[in-house]
Write a structure and sequence with these properties.
- Residues 218-275 form the Conserved virulence factor B-like winged helix domain.
- The structure is a single chain.
- The chain has helices at residues 209-226, 239-246, 250-262, and strands at residues 7-16, 19-23, 29-33, 46-53, 59-62, 73-82, 85-89, 96-99, 112-120, 125-129, 148-156, 160-165, 169-174, 187-195, 201-204, 230-231, 266-269, 272-275.
- By secondary structure, the chain is mainly beta.
- It folds into four domains: 7-62, Nucleic acid-binding proteins (OB fold (Dihydrolipoamide Acetyltransferase, E2P)), CATH 2.40.50.140; 73-133, OB fold (Dihydrolipoamide Acetyltransferase, E2P); 148-204, Nucleic acid-binding proteins (OB fold (Dihydrolipoamide Acetyltransferase, E2P), Beta Barrel); 209-275, Winged helix-like DNA-binding domain superfamily/Winged helix DNA-binding domain (Arc Repressor Mutant, subunit A, Orthogonal Bundle), CATH 1.10.10.10.
- Strands 3-2-1-4-5 form a five-stranded antiparallel beta sheet, with no helix packed on it. Strands 8-7-6-9-10 form a five-stranded antiparallel beta sheet, with no helix packed on it.
- β2 and β3 form a beta hairpin.
- It is globular and about 70 Å long.
Length: 276
């Protein structure tokens, strides 16, 4: 069965002047307008589409990619506000509505807000809510220490940044362990550092020891390659310059350089590092 607000692979059952009609099962036949039709589209072709409700309140299919889909979190910009609520730009022709009763604080035009996208059962419309806690798991997490997880940055606190773990739980990244620029809505890879007795979760953006070195190796090699095969960073570079350039501490930088040197992937020169 096809699902509103998600990607679906559907069969073409008819081609008309205004586009192709797709078989969406219980949702019926859904139009894929001409501007989205693949070249030489034919009956029975399988097309991957996103389904949503258009400005005429009809189910419509598109091959465009929204910034987020049903059940996901995203930082979206308010394009306009009216008596219905705030309308958010989510990458499709019709903006996404955040009703007033789904706004954690009153939304303003031009500002970004972290929202969750869900299907309103009464209207069958996709809507957004900035009342994030409603959509997170209240049950204790079952993560293991240093599990790799997907994070969405959720907000700044006195201690650091709150982050949503695997679309399910809140966790915390501490300021003194962050070596890259973060913003609300940014998606990053993280690790479970600790689960406290009260169930709260401490996070890290890197693993300790050898794992941390391995995590950063590819990024450092890519940085050197982007600089034409030579980077002027070296062991006398300031911690501030290394953090600003690479987003890691000087300790991690030096450990990674040493590891890559042992593997024969780089050469240390007087004024920098060169790919071997």
């Amino acid at each position: 069965m096809a699902t509103i607000g998600q990607y679906n692979t559907l069969s073409v059952i008819a081609i008309m002047a205004n586009g192709a009609y797709l078989d969406a099962g219980e949702l019926g036949e859904i139009l894929l307008p001409n501007r989205y039709l693949p070249e030489n589209c034919q009956i029975d072709d399988q097309i991957k589409v996103f389904i949503y409700v258009d400005s005429a309140d009809r189910l419509i299919a598109t091959t465009e990619t929204p910034f987020a889909q049903l059940g996901e979190f995203a930082s979206l910009k308010v394009s306009q506000v009216n008596k219905m609520g705030a309308f958010l730009d989510w990458g499709l022709p019709k903006d996404l509505l955040a009703p007033y009763n789904e706004q954690h604080s009153k939304m303003e035009t031009g500002k970004y807000y972290l929202v969750h996208i869900y299907l309103d059962k009464n209207t069958e419309r996709l809507v957004a809510s900035s009342k994030i806690d409603r959509f997170l798991d209240i049950w204790p997490a079952e993560y293991q220490k240093w599990d790799k997880v997907d994070l969405i940055i959720g907000g700044k606190t006195d201690l650091g940044f709150k982050a949503i773990i695997n679309n399910r739980h809140w966790g915390l990244l501490y300021d003194n362990e962050i070596f890259q620029p973060l913003r609300i809505g940014k998606k990053v890879t993280g690790y479970i550092k600790n689960i406290r007795e009260d169930g709260r979760i401490d996070l890290s953006l890197s693993r300790p020891g050898e794992g941390k070195v391995n995590d950063f190796s590819d990024k450092l090699l890519a940085h050197i390659a982007e600089q034409g095969g030579f980077s002027p960073l070296h062991d006398k570079s300031s911690p501030e310059l290394i953090k600003r350039t690479l987003g890691v501490s000087k300790k991690t930088f030096k450990s990674t350089v040493g590891n890559l040197l042992k593997k024969g992937k780089i050469i240390i020169e007087k004024d920098g590092i060169r790919l071997k």
